[in-house]
Design goal:
The chain has about 375 residues and is of the alpha+beta class. Helices cover about 40% and strands about 20% of the residues. It has helices spanning about 5-15, 90-100, 125-140, 145-160, 170-175, 220-235, 250-255, 255-280, 285-300, 310-320, 345-360, and strands spanning about 20-30, 40-45, 45-60, 65-70, 75-80, 110-115, 180-185, 190-195, 205-210, 325-330, 335-340, 365-370, 375. A hairpin with a 4-residue loop joins β7 and β8 (about 190-195). The longest helix is centred in the last third of the chain and has 25 residues, at about 255-280. It is globular and about 60 Å long. The structure holds alpha-D-galactopyranose. The site of alpha-D-galactopyranose has 11 residues, from α5.
Amino acid sequence: MSLKLEAETGFQAAFGYPATGVWSAPGRANLIGEHTDYNLGFVLPFGIDRRTYAAISLRADKICRVASTIDTQIYQLDLAGQKPTGLDWALYPLGIAWMMREHGQQGFDCFITSDVPVGAGLSSSAALECSVAFGLNELWQAGLERVELARIGQRAENEVVGAPTGIMDQTASLMAQSDSAVLIDCRDLTTTNVKLGLSEKNLVVAVIDTGVAHRHSDGGYRSRRDACELGAKTLGVSSLRELDISDLPRAKVELDDLTFRRVRHVITENQRVLDTVSALALSNLDSLGELMAQSHASMRDDFEISIDELDLAVATAIESGAIGSRMTGGGFGGAAIAIINQDELFTLEKKCKLAFAAKGYKEPRIFAVKPSQGARKES
Ligand code: GLA
C-alpha cells in the first residue's frame, strides 16, 4: 500500500470519517553548508525521495488531534488552551498548529505516515512539520508563502520543541525541486535552484546512516551556536555572515583558540557552499569532491561535530570510489552522504558494513536518495 493510501485508511480507522486531503513533504540531505544557517550564511540542501504524508480534515471545534503509524495513540491540543508540551513525536505537528494559530482557529484531525528515517540526520522532523503546515495553510486558507511556512516550522522547533535549530531543514523541505539542490541565503531566505544532473552522469547520492541517534535539543548543538554568537560579538559583527576569509587573521588574534576554530569553520564553509555552486555549474566533479572533503575535515577538526562512525563512513566511501563524501546535518550522529557511481553502490554498502563490523560498530544502513520535489498536495 502506498504511504498516501495508508494515511487515508489510517485516518478513517482512527477518526471514523474520511480525510479532506493528503499533503506531503520530504526529508532533506545537505550537500554542503553545515551550521551556517543560524549564522545567516549559505546552505545547499536537497529534498529526498523519502516523504511524510499528512491526511487532514478540519473539525468544527478548536481541538487538534494527530495519530500515526508510529504508535496507536491519539495526541491532542486545544487551540484555545496552553502551549503544548510533552506529546512525544506529536509535539512537531501540534507545535505547528500552535504557531499557526493566528492564521486559523479551527481544530483538525490528522493522520501521519512516513518513510523518512528518524534520527538519521535527514530531517524527519522538518518533513513532519512541513507536511502539516502545508496542509493547514490550504485548509485554513491562510495564504502563507512557502518561506513564511518555513519560518513557522523553525519557530515551532525553537519555541515549542525547544531545539535551537536554524531555518535550513524547513526551507529545504518546502522549496526543494527534483534533481536539484536549493541554494538558500539564510540572511533573507532567497533561494536559487541548482541543477545537479546526477542521473545523466550515472551518479547517485548514497546515504550511510550510522544508526547513532542524535538530538539537537541537547548540549552539543546549542554550545556550537553559542560559540558562533560569542565569536560574532567579539569581532563586532551582528552575525558571522558579515565576515569572510580575509577576516580570519584578525579573528585568530582576537578570539580564543576554540572560538576561533568554530568561527573558521563557519566562514570557510560559507565560501565552500558558493564554490560548490560554481563547481556544479562547470560539472567539475573533482572540485566538488575536494570541497566535500574540506567540509568534512572542518566539521571534524574545527567544529568538532563528527563522530568516529561518520569519519569511518566518509573514509570508506572514498575508498569505494565515491567522488565526494561528508557527514550531513547537525552532527553528533546521523548520516554521511557520498556521491558515487550507481554501479559502485553495492561495493560501498559491502565495504561500509565490513569496516563498521571490524570496529565493533552497529551495522550501518546504506541507501540511495534522489533529489526530489518539496511539499505538495497529494490529493
Ligand atoms: C540541523 C538543524 C539545521 C542546521 C543543521 C546543521 O539539521 O536543524 O538548522 O543547523 O543541523 O547544518
